[in-house]
Amino acid sequence: MADDSAVTPVAPVTPAIMQDYLKVEADESVLQDLITTSEIETQNAINSDIPLTVYRTYSVFNQAVKTLVDFLYFSRGDQSDQKVAHPLSYQFLLNNLRWKVLND
Fold first, then answer.
1. Which DSSP state fits 16?
2. With 61 labelled, which of 7, 13, 70, 77 sits at a CA distance of 20 to 30 A?
């Protein structure tokens, strides 16, 4: 796992960051719910025994969270027509994160 003393702090994903990232003025509580869901989904995809505080030290984790929030935000209501559970860009970021987290 990451040595917290040697890791450069990474800003957590916030509703304000997501509003800028998505270029929308969405309800902050909706975005916070999507951020929380995306963080937990990403954590569970790698290893749920590793605390979120560890994952949040990785910039690739935050990018994966932003990518999943984007996907969930813009596809809400259309999920029954989707052919994939997650976008390929998210899967790519998960593989990158998995390698980093499990090899630290």
1. H
2. 77
The alpha-carbon radius of gyration of the chain (Å, integer) is: 14
Reported as a single tens digit per residue, the pLDDT across 83-93 is 767 888 999 99
Q: Give the helix ranges, DSSP H, for the chain.
A: 15-22, 28-46, 52-55, 59-75, 88-103
CA distances 23 to 20, 66, 73, 74, 80, Å, are 5, 13, 12, 12, 25
Q: Please check the confidence at residue 94 and state whether its pLDDT lies above 50.
A: yes
pTM here?
0.85
Ramachandran angles phi, psi of 98, nearest 5°: -55, -45
Mean pLDDT of the chain: 88
Map 88-100 to HEC letters: HHHHHHHHHHHHH
